[in-house]
Amino acid sequence: MGQLSGPTDPTADAHWHTHEERKGFFTDTSICIGCKACEVACKEWNHNPRDGDLDLTGMSYDNTVSLGASTWRHVAFVEQDRARIEEARESGRVLVSLGMPQVRSERDVTTSVTDLSGGDLSGVDTTPPDTPEFRWLMASDVCKHCTHAGCLDVCPTGALFRTEFGTVVVQDDVCNGCGTCVAGCPFGVVERRSDGTAAPTTREGQKKGEQPPIPNKGVAQKCTLCYDRLVDGQTPACAKTCPTTSIKFGDHEDLVTEAKARVAQLHAQGMTEARLYGANELDGVGGTGSVFLLLDEPEVYGLPPDPRVCTADLMTMYKRAAMAAAGMVAAAAVAFLGRGGRGA
Amino acid sequence: MSTSEYDSLRPPEPPRRRRRGGGGGRRRRPFGTGDGNREMLMVPDVEPTSYYGRPVVKPAPWGEDVAAYLFLGGLAGGSGLLGAGAQLSNRPKLRRNARLGALAAVAVGGAALVRDLGRPERFYNMLRTFKVTSPMSVGSWILSAFSAGIGVAAASEIDRMTGEKLPLGKLRPVLRAVEGPAGFEAAAFATPLAAYTAVLLADTATPTWNAMHKDLPFVFVSSASLAAGGLGMVTTPVEEAGPARRMALLGVAGDVTAMRLMEQRMDPVAAEPLHHGKAGTMLKWSERLAVAGGVGTLVGGRWRPAAVASGLALMAASALTRFGVFEAGLHSAKDPRYTIEPQKRRLAERRAAGITDDSITTV
Ligand code: SF4
Ligand code: SF4
Description:
CATH architecture of chain B: Up-down Bundle
CATH topology of the largest domain in chain A: Alpha-Beta Plaits
Number of domains of chain B: 1
Bound molecules: iron/sulfur cluster
Structural class of chain A: alpha+beta
Domain 4Fe-4S ferredoxin-type (chain A): 23-52, 134-165, 166-195
Number of strands of chain A: 10
Radius of gyration of chain B: 26 Å
Binding site for [4Fe-4S] cluster 4 (chain A): 155, 175, 178, 181
CATH class of chain B: Mainly Alpha
Low-confidence stretches of chain B: 16-46
CATH class of the largest domain in chain A: Alpha Beta
CATH topology of chain B: Formate dehydrogenase/DMSO reductase fold
Largest sheet of chain B: none
Radius of gyration of chain A: 23 Å
Mean pLDDT of chain B: 90
Largest interface: A-B, 122 and 109 residues
Distance between the termini of chain A: 48 Å
Number of strands of chain B: 1
Shape of chain A: globular
Number of helices of chain B: 12
Strand content of chain B: under 5%
Binding site for [4Fe-4S] cluster 2 (chain A): 42, 223, 226, 238
Low-confidence stretches of chain A: 102-117, 196-203, 340-344
Oligomer: heterodimer
Number of helices of chain A: 10
Strand order of the largest sheet of chain A: 8-1-10-9
Mean pLDDT of chain A: 87
Order of helices and strands of chain B: HHHHHHHHHHHHE
Transmembrane segments (chain A): 317-338
Organism (chain A): Knoellia koreensis
């Protein structure tokens, strides 16, 4: 058993003997244009079936709704007015003035970040670069490939495993679909694939049986960070297809450095709403393999504001359970010894 | 601002006011029913931001089968313990009934667990490895170890009941020799069986379950004790059922106390689902039935009809506790509020206390 929380090298924790650099994504939502090419490329490459009926949700341009068993990239769309833009900018400013960490990581970033973390933003030009009345937030969400992955920790069969690239992957032929990982993920990523779309459709204009058979029914499914492509030295499909380089793929360490530089650049441009998500190895999941640059609070994008891997408290839980079990034995002893045996 | 030819049809726009904590996600109106103005007319709601009200975490894809198993596993564990006590204190009827009850409960409960899998034909992969970090894995081993012991012990009982009709041949003396140790082996795994399911639920990102992680084991072992005591009272003549009655009473006391303590100590928002809707109703009745069963045991436990009625009430109480807790957790996962609010609060508390280096959001 490796470490259950705190900063660590997940591959070493998993006792890999070969050494590969930890791989990850840096999704810079400030340059996402919401084209959903990543969603399409992911589905294509991984042969993921359609999930659910095709419906208009009314959630801006998002008709995908969420990550799931057959959706491993999900582009979120949020429409915001002036008040919200100002609030986002303000909450970002608060973050900066907290003197939040880019600290405690050896490789430190550009000087402008250090300047800002002093909390003095008076000299910064805060003119909104966008239209002041309205903005669209677009963000391509994906599995975080957590340093401490709840899904992996709680999986009883060992179907979920840590690859040599530090990513988290399900083995389709081992998983028995117990669903523990689904509840274990603090980001709501992994899901058990149901046969939802397998039924031949009979709606007008659609041919019966037009859907191909659904692969891996009943087992847990999620982003593999294109493990099959990584072992071949290829870039994951989503990153390869992204036309704006909003999705960047590479060595985790480099990406975190790049992310910090980018957030500093945006701050220098007055976009104090810019912030990083997952780039801190001291957070509740030990940092994530997929790092994001967001332009508002995480929950606006449907991300948890303070996730904590459930197994971080596992030893407390086991201790409490052991105490409870001891109490039950004691109760049984009292039940049998009480009142000298046969009375009561 | 863009204009359109339909602008004249809109109601006049009230003066802008600054909203707090709103976001794209607050707009829960169904598709096509509103425009920006309608939102302005709403009372400022205090709901936190979320992504269109969509859940942040996913609920476990578990059906009522799993809730039933929570009950049956506890019942089996408690009965296994009663059986071993009866073995030691020479109460053959209580021993027989407890063993048979435990076997039936694990058999049905185990089958329910397998049925709930996405790929039931691969159930044996549960024993493919042993992972301490996975309560499901630890639990599978506990369940297997318990089942093995109680199976042997109960087989011997069945053989005796049927007048040695089981086709055992020369193995009969062997079975008789090992039934005692097998009963104790099962008893060794009985309390873990009753307690681990609490860890299984708590060790998730499901807000209500996770918030219970310190106290749920106490609720579950108490619930298991009162259920097993109840079963003993239903199945066993009153002269031999004394320990079952006392175990039930201790269980009731533990259950009511632990449940209340737990609700007080957990995050108030995460505790809400325990009081609302189906889960709230089930948990309310669970407490009522537990108390009623306890009083019945105390007052009329030595009169068989009253003992049977009390025992049934206790078993129902235990089942309702499990289904209620189960349901409350699933509900908490489906509403983003239960994930976001407690997390925001604890983050703010840490920041207020000067801890600013452990947030997932950084600059
Ligand atoms: S985001 Fe969820 S599914 Fe992805 S590695 Fe982390 S815990 Fe597992
Ligand atoms: S559903 Fe599959 S991958 Fe998920 S915990 Fe169960 S066995 Fe592991």
